[in-house]
Write a structure and sequence with these properties.
The chain has 358 residues and is an alpha/beta fold. The protein folds into 2 domains: 227 residues, Aspartate Aminotransferase, domain 2; 117 residues, Aspartate Aminotransferase, domain 1 (Alpha-Beta Complex), CATH 3.90.1150.10. It is built from 11 helices and 15 strands. Strands 1-9-8-5-4-2-3 form a 7-stranded mixed β-sheet, sandwiched between helices. The longest helix is centred in the last third of the chain and has 18 residues. The chain starts with 11 loop residues before the first helix and ends with a helix.
Length: 358
């Protein structure tokens, strides 16, 4: 069976060696030595400071929206995982959708200003499949209209844009460390922030608002990463470069062997050092996608319709027609991509896709 991805698991003896520290210290909850070591290791690896580790990748979005969007209108993309839109609604804000660029698949920056109203407080944009938004244009728009910028960078571990970490853009960037990601802690995430004062608010907000054991800065929730999660992250981190190189090999094989007469690839934005996080292909029509999916499933190969459906069609948002997102979401399929997919497995996948390309 070939799933859309496979979780990288480090050698179990190395994980055991790391988690022994938990038994030595008898500390399982937040703020332990493993948590501290992981934070230091990630900041060094990513060249990104002001990092806050979290229990999952959705909580950072919710905290950032709580602090920055202030129950206003949030301009966002309809082409993303549901967490970006559901977090906006969950925090009592109103999502205002802007359609996407048909090649980069990120929010179309040229359509953002037309969606701004007097109630707009923030922009929440997704770096789709690790492909950066036009961060320079979005920054200019945000400054012009005094808006906050939150990036859903769930897929962006290790991505650099213009020679710096993609996490260093926006007021807050968030990442997922879910088991399906390139770097993972089993379940987990992080948020990144350049501004020191905002960073401090984010930090106490993810820890019940605590100022020491008995006092409180203000309102907060529990979004803390525990030592068991940090242990997995410390075991995985030394293998990240190897994981990315193996995924690059798979991507290059897809690029060289797929017949692109009936499908198209996502265009990676110029200036990007990409991480090979996903391999989406866009079919000419949904019928071809369904045919390809059926052929692959018959061989126990399971790609994913990612992202589907277009989020502007969700029942709990106000519908507004997004022609590009609605079209692409029906025609896009992420092919299996992982550190240990073999060339023979890729050949089987490619053969099935090419057999129905027009």
């Amino acid at each position: 069976m070939i799933p859309v991805t496979r979780t990288f698991l480090p050698p179990i003896e190395e994980y055991h060696q790391i988690i022994q520290k938990i038994w030595d210290t008898n500390q399982v909850a937040n703020g332990g030595v493993l948590w501290k070591n992981l934070k230091i290791g990630l900041q060094d690896h990513l060249k990104s400071t002001n990092l806050i580790l979290t229990a999952n990748g959705t909580l950072p979005l919710q905290i950032a929206l709580k602090l920055l969007a202030k129950k206003g209108e949030v301009i966002t993309t309809p082409f993303s995982y549901v967490a970006s839109t559901s977090s906006i609604v969950w925090e009592n804000c109103t999502p205002v959708f802007v359609d996407i660029d048909p090649e980069y698949l990120t929010i179309d920056e040229n359509k953002i200003e037309a969606a701004i109203t007097g109630r707009t407080t923030a922009i929440l944009a997704t770096h789709v499949f690790g492909n950066p938004c036009n961060v320079d244009a979005i920054e200019k728009i945000a400054r012009k209209h005094d808006l906050k910028v939150i990036y859903d960078a769930a897929h962006c571990f290790g991505v650099k844009y213009k020679n710096k970490s993609l996490f260093n853009y926006g007021d807050v960037s968030t990442c997922s460390f879910h088991a399906t990601k390139i770097f993972h802690t089993g379940e987990g995430g992080a948020m990144f922030c350049k501004d020191q004062q905002l960073y401090e608010k984010l930090f106490y907000s993810h820890n019940f608002g605590h100022d020491g054991p008995l006092n409180f800065f203000g309102l907060g929730i529990n979004a803390k990463m525990n030592e068991l999660q940090a242990a997995m992250g410390l075991a995985v981190l030394p293998y990240v470069e190897e994981i990315v190189l193996n995924r690059k090999r798979v991507v290059e094989q897809y690029n060289s062997q797929l017949n692109f007469s009936g499908i198209q690839k996502m265009i990676i934005r110029e200036g990007t050092d990409w991480n090979y996080s996903y391999y989406p292909v866009i079919f000419d029509n949904e019928a071809l996608l369904l045919e390809a999916q059926k052929l692959l499933n018959e061989k126990e190969i399971f790609p994913r319709r990612y992202f589907y459906p277009s989020l502007n069609t969700l029942k709990y948002v106000n519908y507004r027609y997004m022609p590009v997102s609605e079209s692409i979401s029906k025609r896009i399929l992420c092919l299996p991509l992982a550190h240990n997919i073999t060339p023979d497995e890729v050949e089987i996948i490619v053969g099935k896709i090419n057999s129905i390309s027009r």
